[in-house]
Amino acid sequence: MRLIFEEIVGDPNVQIFFSIVLSLLVTWRSIPVIRNICMLRGLMENPVKRSSHSSPTPTFGGIAIFAGTLMGYMLWNFEDEGYLMHKIFAGLLILFFLGLKDDLYALAPLKKIGSQVIASVLVVVGSDLRITSFFGIFGIHELPYVLSVLFTIFIFVALINSFNLIDGIDGLSGGIGMIASAGFGWWFILNEQWSMACLGFSLAASLLGFLRYNYSKTTKIFMGDTGSLIVGYLVTILAVRFINLNETANFSPGQHFVSAPVIALSLLSVPIFDTLRVFGVRILKGRSPFEADRLHLHHLLVDNGLTHLASSLTLYGMTIALSIFTYSLRSFFSNTALSFYVITVFALYLAFSQWLEIRRFKNHRTKLNQNGTSKPKKSTLDLEGSISKN
């Protein structure tokens, strides 16, 4: 009986299942404790004009996500990528304390980016986890070492901040992170990359436990910068490793993807495309790319009448549908097709966003006309979605 038990528990698939359960339970049960401490100590985010909430809300859900993910992963001793995991968790600790301090004191953007660069360098240079090839997208194949390192560090910082930027409505950053980490985790399981699979599913389970409270009306909590930095960092780890292994490792033909970068892009399409679009529009308008406004896709959906839940579910659906479609075409991509596919998807995203902006503007004008006002005032939303301070 003992031998049977040891054989069952020794199965990596079973171990990952127990990690999922532990991560979910740790996050689920720790959030009420964190909420109570926040409420007793007054550690709340008070609503302002642009806020999506109307009452003071605790913002330290990221602590529970951190604890759940860490405990789920550390339940077992996977040795396949131990050298990499030491660097990953060192970087994770840097971002955890950075996010914690930012949630408490609101750090300057440059200080946050500096710490993100340090955490990224630790992983990219320290463990040689980097994107080494574009797989022929835009005619680019193998990258020189220095360019590979710099590009991967840029990807880390960009994606970490992208998850922070989409954390503007309930469930969006956590839900997209859950979908992406589970998607990468599933591929790692199929290819017996147990350490990465456990990391992916531990994160996904922790985010599932967090979402139960993030969507709640009575026990709501936000992940805060602590959570969004952690989620962005770990999802980037999974994405880069997924791309890296498809370039360097020999897997069965059915699981080796020449379209690996595009599959990763499809899972992360919402934070990537949204950030590119918003930054681009702000720069074209002569504004700082970090200036707050209501240009994000989730804001456009909410301003067009969708609830937070409906808006997040819409973007979940877009992510899943695009990922499945991209996966189904994995064997048909040539270098030219990969480039065309990326451009086409981004163009469709821009068109959808522009349609929502126009629709929002028309709805706003209609309301003004119904109220007997023929011309929008400066205090109202402009076509780009920003709110004038005049």
Question: Can you walk through the features of this model?
Answer:
The structure is a single chain. The protein starts with a helix and ends in a 20-residue tail after the last helix. It has 390 residues and is an all-alpha fold. It contains 14 helices and 2 strands; from the N terminus they run ααββαααααααααααα. α7 runs parallel beside α13. It has a two-stranded antiparallel ribbon with strand order 1-2. The C terminus is likely disordered. It is globular and about 70 Å long. It is a multi-pass membrane protein. InterPro entries: Glycosyl_transferase_4 (IPR000715), PNAcMuramoyl-5peptid_Trfase_CS (IPR018480). GO terms for molecular function: metal ion binding; phosphotransferase activity, for other substituted phosphate groups.
